[in-house]
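Quick one - inputs below.
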Amino acid sequence: MKKNQDWITENFEALVSEYGGKYVGVINEQVIAAALTPKAVLEIAKMKGQDEEDVSLLKVPTEEELVCVL
Amino acid sequence: MRSLEFNYAKHRQRDIPLIPVSLRTGGKWSEVWAYVDSGSFYSLFDDKVAELLGLDLLKGKRVLAVVGDGSFIPVYLHKVGMRIGIDEFALKIGFSSKLGVGFNLLGMDVLDRYRVTFDNRSKKIIFELHEE
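Output:
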């Protein structure tokens, strides 16, 4: 999980560019699924044979949302 | 005192205090990332996380929360299990379909358990658990 954590923080900007407005699921330092809800992300991950407890779920903000927050 | 360190995420040269927390209401844990927000009294997650946890959103206690633009949003409080590192506890957190920000928020209800250091020089957030 620690590797996933580091990967997410290191690649956050790229995730915003590619997946802003969606949830992504990360396993083994890669995005395994992206969808509008975390439930849908886990369903895709399970279909790919992954254990849902291994999936790190990130709500990815859009560029516009980041401007508002920051 | 046990401590946990999390690296900041970065976006356009700005540091973002995001950390993973695990949530559950019964069975399996789900790891969901949240923005560490000392300006938020409650931890607030969007309604899609409530769905993930199998919660009926509207069955929670309804409160109103003020958001950044001064407007009020309805928030529904539900008791969940939360885990940060190896620290596992139960608390009520808020869920809303009107959150209107791009992050789930980890508020003071959780931060009160820890000594939290925003170490901006080393680009880390450090959570130290208070000994009982």
